[in-house]
Amino acid sequence: MALTGLQIYKLLPQTNCKECGFPTCLAFAMKLAAKQAELSACPYVSEEAKAQLDAAAAPPIRLVTVEGPGHKVQVGNETVVFRHEKTFYHPPGLFLRVKDSWPLEQVKGAAKEAMDYTVTYVGMDIHMDGVAVEADSGNPETFAAAVKAVREVTDRPLILMASDPAALKAGLAAADGGRPLLYAATSENWQAVAEVAKAANAPVAVRADSLDGLADLTEKMKGAGIQDIVLDPGVRDPAGTLVALTHLRRLALKKTFRPLGFPIITFPGEGASDVIEEAQLAAEHIAKYAGFIVLDRFAPEMVYALMAWRVNIYTNPQEPIKVQPGIYEINNPTADAPVMITTNFSITYFSVANEIDGSGLPGWLLVADAEGMSVLTAWAAGKFDAEKIAKTVKTTGIEEKINHRKLIIPGAVAVLMGEVEEELPGWQILVGPREAVDLPGYLKLWKSF
What angle do CA 289, 292, 298 make, to 5 degrees? Predict the structure, then answer.
Protein backbone atom coordinates (compact mmCIF):
# COMPACT_ATOMS: atom_id res chain seq x y z
CA MET A 1 0.00 0.00 0.00
CA ALA A 2 1.33 3.44 -0.91
CA LEU A 3 2.17 5.76 1.97
CA THR A 4 0.65 9.20 2.38
CA GLY A 5 2.75 12.34 2.50
CA LEU A 6 2.43 12.57 6.31
CA GLN A 7 3.38 8.92 6.74
CA ILE A 8 6.47 9.48 4.62
CA TYR A 9 7.31 12.67 6.55
CA LYS A 10 7.44 10.73 9.82
CA LEU A 11 10.14 8.49 8.34
CA LEU A 12 12.31 11.35 7.07
CA PRO A 13 15.05 12.98 9.23
CA GLN A 14 12.94 16.18 9.55
CA THR A 15 15.99 18.45 9.49
CA ASN A 16 14.70 20.76 6.71
CA CYS A 17 18.25 20.87 5.33
CA LYS A 18 17.01 21.70 1.79
CA GLU A 19 19.72 19.49 0.24
CA CYS A 20 16.99 17.50 -1.52
CA GLY A 21 16.00 20.61 -3.45
CA PHE A 22 12.80 21.26 -1.50
CA PRO A 23 12.32 23.88 1.25
CA THR A 24 11.17 21.43 3.94
CA CYS A 25 11.06 17.72 4.65
CA LEU A 26 7.27 17.92 4.52
CA ALA A 27 7.37 19.38 1.01
CA PHE A 28 9.79 16.61 -0.02
CA ALA A 29 7.46 13.99 1.54
CA MET A 30 4.50 15.31 -0.42
CA LYS A 31 6.50 15.11 -3.65
CA LEU A 32 7.52 11.53 -2.82
CA ALA A 33 3.88 10.60 -2.23
CA ALA A 34 2.96 12.14 -5.59
CA LYS A 35 5.76 10.20 -7.33
CA GLN A 36 7.42 13.47 -8.33
CA ALA A 37 10.71 13.04 -6.46
CA GLU A 38 13.30 10.31 -5.83
CA LEU A 39 14.16 9.12 -2.33
CA SER A 40 17.86 9.21 -3.27
CA ALA A 41 17.66 13.02 -3.16
CA CYS A 42 17.68 12.86 0.65
CA PRO A 43 21.24 12.24 1.89
CA TYR A 44 20.28 11.66 5.54
CA VAL A 45 17.44 9.14 5.43
CA SER A 46 18.22 6.09 7.58
CA GLU A 47 18.65 2.61 6.13
CA GLU A 48 15.76 1.43 8.26
CA ALA A 49 13.47 4.10 6.84
CA LYS A 50 14.64 3.39 3.30
CA ALA A 51 13.16 -0.09 3.40
CA GLN A 52 9.74 1.37 4.17
CA LEU A 53 10.07 4.32 1.84
CA ASP A 54 11.35 2.58 -1.26
CA ALA A 55 7.91 1.30 -2.20
CA ALA A 56 6.33 4.71 -1.63
CA ALA A 57 9.05 6.53 -3.57
CA ALA A 58 9.10 4.20 -6.58
CA PRO A 59 6.98 5.26 -9.56
CA PRO A 60 3.84 3.14 -10.05
CA ILE A 61 5.06 2.30 -13.58
CA ARG A 62 8.78 1.67 -13.84
CA LEU A 63 10.81 3.80 -16.24
CA VAL A 64 12.44 1.51 -18.81
CA THR A 65 15.16 2.71 -21.18
CA VAL A 66 16.07 1.08 -24.49
CA GLU A 67 19.15 2.50 -26.19
CA GLY A 68 21.05 2.46 -29.43
CA PRO A 69 24.47 4.05 -29.91
CA GLY A 70 22.89 7.35 -31.02
CA HIS A 71 19.39 7.43 -29.57
CA LYS A 72 17.29 6.18 -26.67
CA VAL A 73 13.65 5.57 -25.87
CA GLN A 74 12.34 5.94 -22.32
CA VAL A 75 8.85 4.77 -21.41
CA GLY A 76 7.00 4.45 -18.13
CA ASN A 77 6.83 6.72 -15.08
CA GLU A 78 3.26 7.66 -15.96
CA THR A 79 1.12 8.93 -13.09
CA VAL A 80 -2.41 9.32 -14.48
CA VAL A 81 -4.97 7.22 -16.32
CA PHE A 82 -6.39 10.13 -18.29
CA ARG A 83 -4.29 12.78 -20.00
CA HIS A 84 -6.49 15.66 -18.86
CA GLU A 85 -5.86 14.78 -15.21
CA LYS A 86 -2.31 16.05 -15.58
CA THR A 87 -0.26 14.90 -18.57
CA PHE A 88 1.43 11.85 -20.09
CA TYR A 89 5.21 12.05 -19.90
CA HIS A 90 7.02 9.48 -22.04
CA PRO A 91 5.72 8.94 -25.59
CA PRO A 92 5.66 5.34 -26.84
CA GLY A 93 8.47 4.25 -29.13
CA LEU A 94 7.45 3.39 -32.69
CA PHE A 95 9.44 0.44 -34.11
CA LEU A 96 9.34 -1.33 -37.47
CA ARG A 97 9.62 -5.13 -37.48
CA VAL A 98 11.92 -6.88 -39.95
CA LYS A 99 12.53 -10.63 -40.14
CA ASP A 100 15.79 -12.51 -40.46
CA SER A 101 14.24 -14.85 -43.03
CA TRP A 102 14.26 -11.95 -45.49
CA PRO A 103 17.26 -11.38 -47.77
CA LEU A 104 19.75 -9.10 -46.02
CA GLU A 105 19.34 -6.37 -48.61
CA GLN A 106 15.61 -6.36 -47.98
CA VAL A 107 16.23 -6.16 -44.24
CA LYS A 108 18.59 -3.22 -44.69
CA GLY A 109 16.35 -1.49 -47.20
CA ALA A 110 13.25 -1.70 -45.02
CA ALA A 111 15.10 -0.52 -41.92
CA LYS A 112 16.81 2.35 -43.76
CA GLU A 113 13.61 3.58 -45.39
CA ALA A 114 11.80 3.73 -42.06
CA MET A 115 14.67 5.21 -40.07
CA ASP A 116 15.43 7.85 -42.71
CA TYR A 117 11.85 9.11 -42.71
CA THR A 118 11.71 12.43 -40.85
CA VAL A 119 9.07 15.15 -40.96
CA THR A 120 8.70 18.56 -39.35
CA TYR A 121 5.58 18.96 -37.27
CA VAL A 122 4.78 22.12 -35.27
CA GLY A 123 8.43 23.07 -35.44
CA MET A 124 9.73 19.67 -34.31
CA ASP A 125 11.57 17.03 -36.33
CA ILE A 126 9.82 13.73 -35.61
CA HIS A 127 10.77 10.22 -36.68
CA MET A 128 10.39 6.56 -35.83
CA ASP A 129 12.39 5.28 -32.89
CA GLY A 130 13.93 1.97 -33.85
CA VAL A 131 13.77 -1.46 -35.43
CA ALA A 132 12.51 -4.78 -34.09
CA VAL A 133 14.39 -7.74 -35.55
CA GLU A 134 12.59 -11.08 -35.37
CA ALA A 135 14.37 -14.45 -35.43
CA ASP A 136 11.95 -15.91 -37.94
CA SER A 137 14.51 -18.38 -39.26
CA GLY A 138 15.20 -20.07 -35.94
CA ASN A 139 18.94 -19.90 -36.63
CA PRO A 140 21.10 -17.79 -34.25
CA GLU A 141 23.72 -17.05 -36.94
CA THR A 142 21.07 -15.90 -39.43
CA PHE A 143 19.50 -13.75 -36.71
CA ALA A 144 22.86 -12.18 -35.86
CA ALA A 145 23.45 -11.36 -39.52
CA ALA A 146 20.08 -9.60 -39.74
CA VAL A 147 20.78 -7.59 -36.58
CA LYS A 148 24.17 -6.59 -37.95
CA ALA A 149 22.57 -5.52 -41.24
CA VAL A 150 20.11 -3.30 -39.39
CA ARG A 151 22.86 -1.80 -37.27
CA GLU A 152 24.72 -0.83 -40.46
CA VAL A 153 21.91 1.55 -41.45
CA THR A 154 20.77 2.95 -38.09
CA ASP A 155 22.09 3.74 -34.63
CA ARG A 156 18.63 3.80 -33.09
CA PRO A 157 17.41 1.28 -30.47
CA LEU A 158 16.61 -2.32 -31.30
CA ILE A 159 14.11 -4.88 -30.08
CA LEU A 160 15.51 -8.39 -30.43
CA MET A 161 12.68 -10.89 -30.89
CA ALA A 162 13.47 -14.57 -30.32
CA SER A 163 12.19 -17.37 -28.14
CA ASP A 164 15.58 -19.10 -28.23
CA PRO A 165 18.00 -17.63 -25.65
CA ALA A 166 20.91 -18.60 -27.91
CA ALA A 167 19.50 -16.41 -30.66
CA LEU A 168 19.03 -13.51 -28.23
CA LYS A 169 22.64 -13.88 -27.15
CA ALA A 170 23.83 -13.85 -30.77
CA GLY A 171 21.66 -10.82 -31.49
CA LEU A 172 23.10 -8.92 -28.53
CA ALA A 173 26.61 -9.56 -29.79
CA ALA A 174 25.68 -8.31 -33.27
CA ALA A 175 23.89 -5.24 -31.91
CA ASP A 176 27.31 -3.71 -31.20
CA GLY A 177 26.52 -1.65 -28.12
CA GLY A 178 23.43 0.03 -26.86
CA ARG A 179 20.78 -1.60 -24.72
CA PRO A 180 18.24 -3.55 -26.80
CA LEU A 181 14.93 -4.82 -25.47
CA LEU A 182 14.82 -8.63 -25.41
CA TYR A 183 11.50 -10.18 -26.45
CA ALA A 184 10.22 -12.38 -24.95
CA ALA A 185 10.39 -14.34 -21.72
CA THR A 186 7.58 -16.85 -21.26
CA SER A 187 6.68 -19.49 -18.68
CA GLU A 188 8.80 -21.97 -20.68
CA ASN A 189 12.04 -20.02 -21.19
CA TRP A 190 12.11 -17.25 -18.56
CA GLN A 191 15.07 -18.62 -16.61
CA ALA A 192 17.36 -18.84 -19.65
CA VAL A 193 16.22 -15.44 -20.96
CA ALA A 194 16.81 -13.90 -17.55
CA GLU A 195 20.39 -15.18 -17.56
CA VAL A 196 21.05 -13.63 -20.97
CA ALA A 197 19.44 -10.33 -19.97
CA LYS A 198 21.27 -10.11 -16.66
CA ALA A 199 24.63 -10.68 -18.31
CA ALA A 200 23.91 -7.91 -20.83
CA ASN A 201 22.07 -5.58 -18.43
CA ALA A 202 19.20 -5.54 -20.93
CA PRO A 203 15.47 -5.02 -20.34
CA VAL A 204 13.15 -7.94 -21.03
CA ALA A 205 9.59 -8.20 -22.32
CA VAL A 206 7.51 -10.95 -20.71
CA ARG A 207 4.55 -12.50 -22.52
CA ALA A 208 1.58 -14.37 -21.03
CA ASP A 209 -2.04 -14.92 -21.99
CA SER A 210 -3.47 -13.59 -18.72
CA LEU A 211 -2.77 -10.82 -16.24
CA ASP A 212 -2.16 -13.42 -13.53
CA GLY A 213 0.39 -15.08 -15.78
CA LEU A 214 2.12 -11.75 -16.42
CA ALA A 215 2.27 -10.96 -12.72
CA ASP A 216 3.75 -14.39 -11.98
CA LEU A 217 6.41 -13.91 -14.67
CA THR A 218 7.43 -10.43 -13.52
CA GLU A 219 7.89 -11.68 -9.96
CA LYS A 220 10.05 -14.54 -11.21
CA MET A 221 12.12 -12.16 -13.36
CA LYS A 222 12.61 -9.76 -10.45
CA GLY A 223 13.66 -12.68 -8.29
CA ALA A 224 16.26 -13.49 -10.95
CA GLY A 225 17.64 -9.95 -10.73
CA ILE A 226 15.83 -8.36 -13.71
CA GLN A 227 14.19 -5.05 -12.82
CA ASP A 228 13.57 -3.48 -16.25
CA ILE A 229 10.56 -5.38 -17.56
CA VAL A 230 8.03 -4.77 -20.33
CA LEU A 231 4.61 -6.46 -20.49
CA ASP A 232 2.93 -8.23 -23.42
CA PRO A 233 -0.57 -9.33 -22.36
CA GLY A 234 -0.82 -11.52 -25.46
CA VAL A 235 -4.00 -10.02 -26.96
CA ARG A 236 -3.99 -8.51 -30.44
CA ASP A 237 -7.55 -7.54 -31.44
CA PRO A 238 -8.79 -3.95 -30.90
CA ALA A 239 -11.31 -4.70 -28.13
CA GLY A 240 -9.02 -7.15 -26.35
CA THR A 241 -6.01 -4.84 -26.30
CA LEU A 242 -8.11 -1.91 -25.11
CA VAL A 243 -9.47 -3.92 -22.19
CA ALA A 244 -6.14 -5.51 -21.28
CA LEU A 245 -4.08 -2.31 -21.49
CA THR A 246 -6.67 -0.38 -19.50
CA HIS A 247 -6.68 -3.03 -16.78
CA LEU A 248 -2.89 -2.95 -16.63
CA ARG A 249 -2.81 0.84 -16.32
CA ARG A 250 -5.48 0.92 -13.62
CA LEU A 251 -3.90 -1.87 -11.59
CA ALA A 252 -0.56 -0.07 -11.65
CA LEU A 253 -1.87 3.42 -10.83
CA LYS A 254 -5.06 2.91 -8.85
CA LYS A 255 -4.12 -0.24 -6.94
CA THR A 256 -0.32 0.25 -6.89
CA PHE A 257 -0.01 -3.39 -7.93
CA ARG A 258 3.76 -3.63 -8.32
CA PRO A 259 3.91 -6.92 -10.28
CA LEU A 260 2.17 -5.16 -13.19
CA GLY A 261 3.75 -1.73 -12.78
CA PHE A 262 5.70 -1.83 -16.04
CA PRO A 263 5.41 -0.41 -19.59
CA ILE A 264 3.54 -2.37 -22.25
CA ILE A 265 4.53 -3.56 -25.73
CA THR A 266 1.96 -4.01 -28.52
CA PHE A 267 1.89 -5.42 -32.06
CA PRO A 268 -0.94 -3.74 -33.98
CA GLY A 269 0.05 -5.43 -37.25
CA GLU A 270 -0.84 -8.83 -35.79
CA GLY A 271 -4.40 -7.69 -35.19
CA ALA A 272 -4.88 -5.99 -38.56
CA SER A 273 -5.55 -7.20 -42.10
CA ASP A 274 -4.21 -4.12 -43.90
CA VAL A 275 -2.31 -0.87 -43.37
CA ILE A 276 -5.45 1.09 -42.47
CA GLU A 277 -6.46 -1.32 -39.72
CA GLU A 278 -2.90 -1.37 -38.43
CA ALA A 279 -2.84 2.44 -38.28
CA GLN A 280 -6.17 2.49 -36.44
CA LEU A 281 -5.01 -0.06 -33.90
CA ALA A 282 -1.64 1.65 -33.41
CA ALA A 283 -3.45 4.95 -32.82
CA GLU A 284 -5.51 3.23 -30.13
CA HIS A 285 -2.34 1.93 -28.49
CA ILE A 286 -0.74 5.39 -28.48
CA ALA A 287 -3.70 6.74 -26.54
CA LYS A 288 -4.30 3.61 -24.41
CA TYR A 289 -1.49 2.85 -23.09
CA ALA A 290 1.42 1.30 -24.98
CA GLY A 291 5.08 1.98 -24.26
CA PHE A 292 6.54 0.23 -27.32
CA ILE A 293 4.57 -0.20 -30.55
CA VAL A 294 5.95 -2.59 -33.15
CA LEU A 295 4.61 -1.97 -36.67
CA ASP A 296 4.67 -4.58 -39.44
CA ARG A 297 4.14 -2.12 -42.27
CA PHE A 298 5.84 1.14 -43.19
CA ALA A 299 3.88 3.69 -45.19
CA PRO A 300 4.79 7.39 -44.90
CA GLU A 301 1.15 8.46 -44.72
CA MET A 302 0.48 6.02 -41.86
CA VAL A 303 3.63 6.82 -39.92
CA TYR A 304 3.16 10.58 -40.28
CA ALA A 305 -0.36 10.35 -38.89
CA LEU A 306 0.78 8.20 -35.97
CA MET A 307 3.71 10.47 -35.11
CA ALA A 308 1.51 13.57 -35.23
CA TRP A 309 -1.09 11.84 -33.07
CA ARG A 310 1.62 10.86 -30.59
CA VAL A 311 2.83 14.47 -30.33
CA ASN A 312 -0.69 15.64 -29.56
CA ILE A 313 -1.44 12.95 -26.99
CA TYR A 314 1.86 13.50 -25.20
CA THR A 315 1.73 17.29 -25.19
CA ASN A 316 0.94 18.76 -21.78
CA PRO A 317 -2.74 19.79 -22.02
CA GLN A 318 -2.03 22.61 -19.58
CA GLU A 319 0.51 24.15 -21.94
CA PRO A 320 -0.14 25.25 -25.54
CA ILE A 321 1.93 23.85 -28.40
CA LYS A 322 4.47 26.47 -29.41
CA VAL A 323 6.81 27.14 -32.30
CA GLN A 324 10.21 28.72 -31.95
CA PRO A 325 10.12 32.55 -32.05
CA GLY A 326 12.20 34.17 -34.78
CA ILE A 327 12.21 34.85 -38.53
CA TYR A 328 10.58 32.39 -40.92
CA GLU A 329 11.36 32.72 -44.63
CA ILE A 330 8.49 31.67 -46.89
CA ASN A 331 8.83 31.23 -50.67
CA ASN A 332 12.42 32.55 -50.75
CA PRO A 333 11.75 36.20 -49.83
CA THR A 334 14.01 38.97 -51.14
CA ALA A 335 14.83 42.31 -49.55
CA ASP A 336 11.65 43.91 -50.89
CA ALA A 337 9.28 41.18 -49.67
CA PRO A 338 6.61 42.01 -47.08
CA VAL A 339 7.22 41.54 -43.36
CA MET A 340 4.39 40.16 -41.19
CA ILE A 341 4.24 39.36 -37.49
CA THR A 342 2.20 36.86 -35.49
CA THR A 343 2.43 34.88 -32.23
CA ASN A 344 4.09 31.53 -31.55
CA PHE A 345 0.90 29.55 -30.91
CA SER A 346 1.37 26.63 -33.29
CA ILE A 347 -2.11 26.73 -34.84
CA THR A 348 -1.81 30.47 -35.42
CA TYR A 349 1.64 30.12 -36.94
CA PHE A 350 0.72 27.28 -39.28
CA SER A 351 -2.52 28.96 -40.34
CA VAL A 352 -0.61 32.09 -41.36
CA ALA A 353 2.43 30.31 -42.81
CA ASN A 354 0.32 27.88 -44.86
CA GLU A 355 -1.72 30.70 -46.40
CA ILE A 356 1.42 32.63 -47.36
CA ASP A 357 3.06 29.50 -48.73
CA GLY A 358 -0.05 28.54 -50.68
CA SER A 359 -0.24 31.99 -52.25
CA GLY A 360 3.13 31.48 -53.92
CA LEU A 361 4.14 34.98 -52.80
CA PRO A 362 7.38 35.54 -50.86
CA GLY A 363 7.29 36.91 -47.35
CA TRP A 364 9.11 37.30 -44.05
CA LEU A 365 7.10 36.06 -41.08
CA LEU A 366 8.19 37.25 -37.65
CA VAL A 367 7.04 35.06 -34.77
CA ALA A 368 6.89 36.75 -31.39
CA ASP A 369 7.22 34.87 -28.12
CA ALA A 370 3.68 35.13 -26.74
CA GLU A 371 4.01 32.09 -24.46
CA GLY A 372 2.13 29.95 -26.96
CA MET A 373 -1.03 32.07 -27.03
CA SER A 374 -3.08 33.05 -30.08
CA VAL A 375 -3.09 36.66 -31.24
CA LEU A 376 -6.23 37.83 -29.43
CA THR A 377 -5.55 35.79 -26.29
CA ALA A 378 -1.97 37.07 -26.10
CA TRP A 379 -3.11 40.66 -26.65
CA ALA A 380 -5.73 40.35 -23.88
CA ALA A 381 -3.10 38.87 -21.54
CA GLY A 382 -0.55 41.57 -22.31
CA LYS A 383 1.79 39.11 -24.03
CA PHE A 384 1.44 40.55 -27.54
CA ASP A 385 1.54 44.33 -27.25
CA ALA A 386 3.39 47.17 -28.99
CA GLU A 387 6.47 46.68 -26.84
CA LYS A 388 6.60 42.93 -27.62
CA ILE A 389 6.14 43.56 -31.35
CA ALA A 390 8.89 46.20 -31.39
CA LYS A 391 11.23 43.97 -29.40
CA THR A 392 10.69 41.13 -31.87
CA VAL A 393 11.51 43.40 -34.82
CA LYS A 394 14.65 44.73 -33.15
CA THR A 395 16.04 41.44 -31.84
CA THR A 396 15.43 39.16 -34.82
CA GLY A 397 17.66 41.14 -37.19
CA ILE A 398 14.93 41.55 -39.79
CA GLU A 399 16.05 45.13 -40.44
CA GLU A 400 19.28 43.82 -41.98
CA LYS A 401 17.40 41.57 -44.40
CA ILE A 402 15.00 44.07 -45.99
CA ASN A 403 15.28 47.38 -47.88
CA HIS A 404 12.00 48.87 -46.60
CA ARG A 405 10.42 49.66 -43.24
CA LYS A 406 6.91 48.29 -43.54
CA LEU A 407 5.44 45.92 -40.95
CA ILE A 408 2.08 44.16 -41.26
CA ILE A 409 0.36 43.47 -37.94
CA PRO A 410 -2.68 41.17 -37.57
CA GLY A 411 -6.01 42.83 -38.20
CA ALA A 412 -7.32 41.45 -34.90
CA VAL A 413 -5.01 43.86 -33.04
CA ALA A 414 -5.45 46.89 -35.28
CA VAL A 415 -5.88 48.92 -32.09
CA LEU A 416 -2.11 48.59 -31.54
CA MET A 417 -1.19 50.41 -34.74
CA GLY A 418 -0.47 53.80 -33.15
CA GLU A 419 1.45 52.34 -30.20
CA VAL A 420 3.62 50.23 -32.50
CA GLU A 421 4.45 53.30 -34.59
CA GLU A 422 5.65 55.02 -31.41
CA GLU A 423 7.80 52.00 -30.49
CA LEU A 424 9.26 51.73 -34.01
CA PRO A 425 10.08 55.24 -35.28
CA GLY A 426 10.62 55.31 -39.02
CA TRP A 427 8.49 52.23 -39.65
CA GLN A 428 5.20 52.24 -41.50
CA ILE A 429 2.75 50.01 -39.66
CA LEU A 430 0.14 48.33 -41.85
CA VAL A 431 -2.94 46.51 -40.60
CA GLY A 432 -3.40 43.13 -42.24
CA PRO A 433 -6.58 41.06 -42.49
CA ARG A 434 -8.25 39.58 -39.42
CA GLU A 435 -8.28 36.07 -40.88
CA ALA A 436 -5.28 34.21 -42.30
CA VAL A 437 -7.33 33.01 -45.26
CA ASP A 438 -7.46 36.62 -46.55
CA LEU A 439 -3.67 37.05 -46.56
CA PRO A 440 -3.04 35.97 -50.19
CA GLY A 441 -5.31 38.66 -51.57
CA TYR A 442 -3.88 41.24 -49.19
CA LEU A 443 -0.26 40.47 -50.12
CA LYS A 444 -0.98 41.00 -53.80
CA LEU A 445 -1.80 44.62 -52.97
CA TRP A 446 0.52 45.38 -50.07
CA LYS A 447 3.03 47.49 -52.05
CA SER A 448 0.26 49.96 -52.85
CA PHE A 449 -0.38 50.67 -49.18
Answer: 115
What is the domain-level CATH number for residue 85? 3.20.20.20
Question: From CA 147, how far away is CA 135, in angstroms rounded?
Answer: 9
CB contact at 8 A, 307 and 96: no
- 102-110: Cβ within 8 A, 24+ apart: 102/146, 104/145, 104/146, 104/149, 107/133, 107/146, 107/149, 107/150, 108/149, 108/150, 108/152, 108/153, 110/298
- Convert 81-97 to b/e letters by CB count within 10 Å (16 or more is b): eebeeebbbbbbbbbbb
Between the CA of residue 269 and those of 162, 248, 282, 311, 393, what are the distances in Å? 18, 21, 8, 21, 50
Rg (CA), the chain: 27
Tell me the per-residue pLDDT of 12-69, one tens digit each, with 9 for 90 and over: 999 999 999 899 999 998 888 877 787 888 989 888 888 777 766 678 899 999 999 9
Q: What is 251-316 written as a DSSP string?
A: HHHTS--GGG-S-BEE-GGGG-SSHHHHHHHHHHHHHTT-SEEEES---HHHHHHHHHHHHHHTS-
Exposure letters 22-49 (e unless 16+ CB within 10 A, then b): bebbbbbbbbbbebebebeebeebeeeb
For β-strands 326-330 and 363-368, DSSP reports them as: antiparallel
Looking at the fold, whether 131 and 108 belong to one and the same domain comes out as: yes
Please give the tally of structural domains in the chain.
Answer: 3
| Contact in structure between 134 and 97 (CB atoms under 8 Å) | yes
Distance, in Å, from the CA atom of 208 to the CA atom of 231, rounded to the nearest integer, reads 8
User: 394 in a domain, yes or no?
Assistant: yes
3 state SS for 387-428: HHHHHHHHHHCHHHCCCCCEEEECHHHHHHHHHHHHHCCCCE
pLDDT in tens, 254-269: 988 999 999 999 999 9
Helix axis angle for 165-175 and 190-200, nearest 10°, is 20
Containing 368, the helix (H) or strand (E) segment is strand 363-368
- Tell me, yes or no, whether 338 and 309 share the same domain: no
Residue 319 lies in a domain: no
- Owning domain of residue 336: 326-448
Give the CATH number for residue 361.
3.40.50.11600
